[in-house]
Write a structure and sequence with these properties.
Blueprint (H helix, E strand, L loop, with lengths): L6 H34 L35 E10 L1 H5 L1 H7 L4 E4 L5 H13 L3 E8 L8 H10 L5 E5 L8 H14 L3 E4 L1 H6 L17 H16 L1
Parallel strand pairs: 1-2, 1-3, 3-4, 4-5
Length: about 230
């Protein structure tokens, strides 16, 4: 049935409908504001980043450090470390492996300097010699400058070589230490782990022979730390 009222008669009803609609919008707006204030707090319009705090921050790995070591020559394996020694190295082998993870250690009782040279040569020939080298030899007999040069001829191409000097109750202790010191002065990539000085002030670390340490004892731990720090810092 058609609405027979005139436009003037229908106008009050239309106004009432508009007012109702406006009232509903106002109520809904207020409810929305209440909901947002309860869940988000008073968030500034110009601070949308505050909403992102609900998600974990994105982190990036620090840039990889670069080494200052020169690249190794043929026969040496970059990024690897090889240690060859005698029975004293056996005393501190385990803490050295802890301080330098992944190190390859070849140590045995009564090994002479010449025997160590041979071991290094075999490793180099087979491509298994680390670019960084630790030499713990000379406890079992005197060495000369020529012996040192023979060792360095084999180790030519290594990025860094650390020689551990001696605390041994034999008359070749001081002459052998002098050979190492002289050798280090002639080869720029050679460094000395000065065990002789540290050991001289800690006699309690040694057994009755004045040379060997308690395996994995405080002296062995100290020697391993000295070697590792010398290798790291030169």
């Amino acid at each position: 049935m058609a609405d027979e009222r005139t436009p003037a008669e229908r106008r009050p009803r239309l106004l009432r409908l508009v007012l109702v609609d406006l009232l509903l919008l106002a109520v809904l707006g207020g409810l929305s504001a209440l909901f947002l204030s309860q869940h988000w707090g008073n968030v500034p319009i110009d601070a949308p980043h505050r909403f992102a705090l609900a998600t974990p921050p994105i982190t990036t790995l620090p840039p990889a450090t670069t080494t200052t070591l020169p690249p190794p020559g043929p026969g040496f394996v970059a990024g690897h470390i090889t240690a060859v020694g005698d029975s004293v190295m056996l005393d501190y082998r385990d803490p050295l492996q802890t301080d330098i993870p992944g190190i390859d250690i070849d140590a045995t009782v009564s090994r002479q300097w010449s025997g160590g040279v041979q071991v290094f040569q075999e490793l180099k020939t087979s491509g298994q010699l680390g670019a960084e080298v630790i030499v713990g030899l000379g406890t079992n007999g005197p060495i000369t400058d020529s012996d040192f040069d023979a060792m360095m001829q084999v180790l030519s191409g290594a990025s860094r070589v650390v020689f551990v000097n001696f605390h041994v109750d034999r008359d070749w202790q001081d002459p052998n230490n002098a050979v190492l010191a002289n050798g280090a002065s002639r080869y720029p990539n050679v460094f000395i782990a000065d065990w002789a000085s540290l050991a001289a002030t800690n006699p309690q670390w040694f057994g009755s022979d004045g040379t060997h340490l308690g395996i994995d004892g405080p002296g062995a731990t100290a020697l391993a730390m000295l070697v590792a720090s010398t290798l790291a810092t030169g």
